[in-house]
Amino acid sequence: MVAKSSLRLAENIAGNFYVDQSCIDCSTCNWLAPESFKGAASNSFVHNQPDSAKSIRQAQKALISCPVGAIGTEQKTAIDAQLRFPDLIADNVFHCGYHAESSFGATSYFIQRQAGNILVDSPRFAGALVKEIERMGGLDIMFLTHRDDIADHQKYADHFGCQRFIHIDDAVSSAGEVEHKITGSEPFEIDDELVILPVSGHTKGSACLLYQESFLFTGDHLAWNIEAQNLRAFRTACWYDWSIQTTSMKTLLDYKFEWVLPGHGRRINLPAAEMQKSLVKCIEWMG
Ligand code: SF4
Asked: Between 1.20.1250.20, 3.60.40.10, 3.30.70.20, 3.40.50.1100, what CATH number should domain 5-73 receive?
């Protein structure tokens, strides 16, 4: 999967970075490097050539993360030495990069902690990422938010021997092999820092993971919407039941969190009180 200059999309502005025709419009590059990439009707393109060290690094993060290798450069460009995945977001929470096509480019996350490292949803099983996770202490737990974002979970489980969790209603296909299948709609504590919150709706067995009452990993249940400048669920990508999703969204009001880290779409960090207000607005909008 390497981008081809001969397939460069016409919308790209002239210059080194480009998106080619293999783009599947997953929007990863748009939120990861918005200075350089933008979405059009059915693909993304380069609207500004990155020209500072920071913007070049962000564009290179998008290039590495692109699930289909649709981002390329005309000139051979060395990857920024400071660029490494997992890439720190805050505290001990990291973005894994290396998005998988089989998860339609969903974002996965890594949490490094004394009590055991965690992978939230599955990135591609890429050698460079696997090595870095090994260097950071390996994997103890893998949490799968729902059936669509499981990608290479079996390879990670085989390699690291980690214990996987998924809701039983989404334990379909290869997720049937997952070690721990949670049931029902009640919260499930993995340990005193980690709580699984079942949030049926996007899929029947969708679930969020709350870490340290601060980081909420939401899969495709909830994300930040840039146009609305508010939290939103994906109305046109609700595969199970919108009314059930609205009800399960309300259960999140019982929890305090400052980060929403989604599978698709944009993450957001707000003070807990503002996050709560945004969630209330989202629920009103859903109704
Ligand atoms: S990350 Fe790749 S596939 Fe996704 S929108 Fe950007 S260019 Fe397209």
From this structure: 3.30.70.20
